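Dear colleague,

Thank you for sharing your sequence with our group. We've completed the structure prediction you requested, and as agreed, I am returning the results in plain text so they can be pasted directly into your records. Please verify that the sequence below matches your submission; if there's any discrepancy, let me know and we will rerun it promptly.
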Amino acid sequence: MLDDSFIFGLGFFAQGLFSARLLVQWFLSEKAKKVVSPDLFWQLSLVASILLLIYGILRKDLVIVGGQFVSFYIYLRNLQLKNVWQSFPWWLRVLALSAPVLAILFLFITPTEYNIRDMMHNPLITAQLYTVGAIGQFIFTFRFIYQLIYSERHHESLLPPMFWVISITGSLIIIGYAIVRRDPVIILGQIFGTLIYSRNLILYYTQRVRDREAPTDE
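Please find the predicted structure tokens below.
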């Protein structure tokens, strides 16, 4: 069995990358005085998602694993919409596309304790707690489904205001789940994220007020 310090270290590193993507997005949004969707936001998301997927497997936590599996491919699609994905070497694209699938296959075929059966019967996670975590992760993941649909309609990668509202809702539920699970990685990551989500909402509505008050040429 792997040492807990290694597992938590991996988790904190993954959350650090997720936090870095939010800091980049926040800094560039503040600079532009409007909410923006930078390339680096999605690139960091892709790497962090793979690492957090591994962390979820090592923690035997299907809530974490399920959320990352869906979000990963939405990050990928946003990179395509921003014409960044095509610039990656072909071997890196193949590796990225196959990484989550290989992780899921590992869960079903591995003879180690990190398999799907042990994860589904983790004695540290009750059915009620799984339900709360699944609801929170579903809402949290749905934000990217909503964001992708919105972006596809506008033919560019965008972060609409409802994306941040859904993010805050899902994040608060996941924080409650993580507190019961005693998972400092998820707790700290989600608390930090909630602050950035809230700031993006403020930026969006500040921009709307500024646009309404701007003089129009007659």
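Summary note from our side: Residues 4-213 form one domain.

Kind regards,
the structure core
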